[in-house]
Amino acid sequence: MGRMITVNVELGERAYPIHIGADLIGQTALFAPHIAGNSVTIVTNTTVDPLYGDTLRAALAPLGKQVSTVVLPDGEAYKNLETLNLIFDALLGSRADRKTTLIALGGGVIGDMTGFAAACYMRGVPFIQVPTTLLSQVDSSVGGKTGINHPLGKNMIGAFYQPQAVIADIGALRTLPARELAAGIAEVIKTGAIADAGFFRWIEANVEALNGCEPTALAEAVKRSCEIKASVVAQDEREGGLRAILNFGHTFGHAIEAGLGYGEWLHGEAVGCGMVMAADLSVRLGYLDEASRKRLVDVIVAAHLPTRAPALGESRYIELMQVDKKAEAGAIKFILLKRFGETLITQAPDAEVHATLAAAV
Amino acid sequence: MGRMITVNVELGERAYPIHIGADLIGQTALFAPHIAGNSVTIVTNTTVDPLYGDTLRAALAPLGKQVSTVVLPDGEAYKNLETLNLIFDALLGSRADRKTTLIALGGGVIGDMTGFAAACYMRGVPFIQVPTTLLSQVDSSVGGKTGINHPLGKNMIGAFYQPQAVIADIGALRTLPARELAAGIAEVIKTGAIADAGFFRWIEANVEALNGCEPTALAEAVKRSCEIKASVVAQDEREGGLRAILNFGHTFGHAIEAGLGYGEWLHGEAVGCGMVMAADLSVRLGYLDEASRKRLVDVIVAAHLPTRAPALGESRYIELMQVDKKAEAGAIKFILLKRFGETLITQAPDAEVHATLAAAV
Q1: Does the keyword Nucleotide-binding apply (chains A, B) (predicted)?
Q2: Yes or no, beta carbons of B150 and A92 under 8 Å apart
Q3: Contact partners, residue A140, CB within 8 Å, separation at least 6
Q4: At what angle do helices B314-322 and B350-360 cross, to 10 degrees?
Q5: What's residue B207's pLDDT?
Q6: pLDDT at residue A225 above 90?
Q7: Residue pair A342/A196 in contact by the 8 Å Cβ criterion
Q8: In the prediction, which pLDDT does B330 show?
Q9: CATH 1.20.1090.10: which residues of chain A?
Q10: What is the CA radius of gyration of chain A?
């Protein structure tokens, strides 16, 4: 195998490793330490199973476990209670027990649903994340947020539940459609913007290499993003405070996703546009300078992400943002940028929010 | 108010009090310390809301919170994903936020579903248990097990999630149908049998007082049962070992419930019959003496609980018990009795299990 990097998420008895490298899905030795019981259920989707299902099953074969596979329909539109129940049906149908390990093979939707199923099945069974998209490698597979959408709000139903390990195979990104690659770069940009001005500059310098799926650049982006997110999560596992900064661009972004119907825009696309809106609001409220806003917008454009928001109507945006999990008693909380590496969380006057919405469409 | 007893469940930062006494539902002061946010959602059912809904809403009124009520259909048959989703619909419809407190007003089904909804809504909101049946007062509202049924198995989907407080109003038992009272006494008998020979003798001596809904006897039964369960749970919150003893009678009992269809027998009725079967198996395997078995059966009969199992067929019983959460790789684990106050957890030879099933019908 090529060079593998490991980032550890320090969460005491729930600590776990993130292994990052090329062609890791086929490596038996990476899975062996994390599978204690006699059976494994792989949860994947109709797109990913034909690409990597056999590689994973071949890697598991030498372990002598009973392996079954659940293949779900692909897409954010299926991240709901009905699809979740398909996982439970399969687990009970194959007599999965409390020691059965679930393996999430796919992107963020598969990871979020499989993690939530693992949290709930028999009140908790172990699971391993094998993220196959850039977005899930840099973001959704790190930190233990699991869940499903509700027609009235994204990720409204879920659990904090940590995996045994994350195995992020950079090689899997070779088959990723360009639109999904861009969606992943959005979360990389977010991570740099909120937490590390040096990493943000690195992204500005390397965005073309990332667009071109250059392995060294991708590995570095995944490693730095995971390190930053792991550090934030280790300080605030259950989002009592600090962790909310990871939601930069997500308040507007979730509204776009829910307003258009899940799956219309990719999550990362909505976050890209949401960051443009959050930066606009940050400037209007006097927290961020115009030059920094422009740098952020420029790199979002360079990553081929959308910067114009869909015309849902201002009142619909407000309504959707009021059900955001950060809102309290209907008061929306925004994650705003002061400078690269420094954020604040605050309510905002209606006039400025409306101005941002009007400017964004 | 009359005399109130408080049992504390010692779980570190998740510790909580169980208040036991007559006419507690109407007491504002019991709720006030446990409601931090601006809104409360009461989850109850069509039977309990007309009886105690107004009393609870009147108790909450002086706190100045926004109070909404979700009224679910009544019965174990509704303890499923579809009904759970009605709670989420209501929470999102009323814009419940991360600080909204859920109050479970009802029996075990309402408590289990409300607790699970609280565990999952926005990945966790606070909740208070107000159990209105004897079964939920002595058992299901203590210990943080929450969840729903799956057609293939009882309580298969859920979470360990502790309430802020339990308010067990003995007065509410006055309206309890005799069949439900008996079902609650089954869990009282179970608690004495597995953990405390002295309490078991007390139950033998007081079973008629309990059948007659005598308040002093009920308060004592609730207090002793909660103390014992709280002690077990404090030692093993997530059922790594010891806690499984609380499942005495439940391996057979869950099979009866799932096999007949949820709601046909009450949970406590199935546990009553399941204890008869577990005691029979305990004698067959040489762990328990016949005289103790007879004492257990006698008190179950005295509590007007069923002792003959429904004729599901032996292979169906085995199949249903193999999906029990304690089973591993299809091997069923039984909680057996050695003497009152002492249990063991073990697999059993097929011949003896079949003999018990044959004898039970």
Answers
A1: yes
A2: yes
A3: A107, A108, A111, A112, A131
A4: 120
A5: 98
A6: yes
A7: no
A8: 82
A9: 181-360
A10: 20
pLDDT for position A2: 62
Is-catalytic flag, A250? yes
Fold classification of B5-175 (topology level): Rossmann fold (3.40.50)
- Structure tokens that stand for B176 in this block: 């309890």
Contact B330 A95 (CB under 8 A): yes
Sign of the alpha-carbon dihedral angle for B23, B26, B29, B35: positive
What residue spans in chain B does CATH classification 1.20.1090.10 cover? 186-360
Residues B70, A360 contacting (CB under 8 angstroms): no
Rounded distance, CA B229 to CA B223, Å?
Answer: 10
In the beta sheet, which residues pair with residue B44?
B71
Buried-exposed string B161-178: b where 16+ CB fall within 10 A, e elsewhere? bbbbbbbbbbbbbeebee
Query: Of residues B243, B284, B293, B333, which has the active-site annotation?
Result: B243
- Cβ separation A152–B330 shorter than 8 A: no
Instruction: Calculate how close chain A gets to B136, using CA atoms only, in Å.
Output: 19
Residue of B nearest to A118 (CA): B157
- pLDDT of chain B, 361 residues: tens digit per residue: 468 999 999 998 899 999 999 999 999 999 999 999 999 999 999 999 999 999 999 999 999 999 999 999 999 899 999 999 999 999 999 999 999 999 999 999 999 999 999 999 999 999 999 999 999 999 888 889 999 999 888 899 999 999 999 999 999 999 999 999 999 999 999 999 999 999 999 999 999 999 999 999 999 999 999 999 999 999 988 887 889 999 999 999 999 999 999 889 999 999 999 999 999 999 999 999 999 999 999 999 999 999 999 999 999 999 999 988 888 888 999 999 999 999 999 999 999 999 999 999 9
Segments of chain B assigned to CATH 3.40.50.1970: 5-175
SS3 for B88? Answer: helix
Name the segment(s) of chain A with CATH classification 3.40.50.1970.
4-175
Kindly list the residues from chain A whose CB atom is less than 8 angstroms away from the CB atom of residue B38. Answer: 328-329
CATH of B186-360, one of 2.50.20.10, 3.40.50.450, 3.60.40.10, 1.20.1090.10: 1.20.1090.10
The pair of structure tokens assigned to A357 is: 């919405």
Cα–Cα distance measured from residue B14 to residue B332, given in angstroms and rounded to the nearest whole number: 32
As a whole number of angstroms, the distance between CA A240 and CA A351 comes to 29
- Residues B138 and B195: their CA atoms lie apart, in Å, by 14
Chain A to chain B Cβ contacts (< 8 Å): 102
Q: What is the pLDDT of residue A329?
A: 80
How far is the alpha carbon of B115 from chain A, nearest alpha carbon, in Å? Answer: 12
Q: What is the pLDDT of residue B2?
A: 62
Nearest-by-CA chain B residue for A87: B157
Q: Which pLDDT score is estimated for B213?
A: 94
* Cα separation values, A254 from A64, A75, A79, A309, A317, Å: 42, 16, 14, 12, 10
CATH of span A4-175: 3.40.50.1970
CA A232, CA A143: separation in Å to the nearest integer?
9
Cβ atoms within 10 Å of A135's Cβ, excluding its own: 27
Both tokens of residue A26? 């086929």
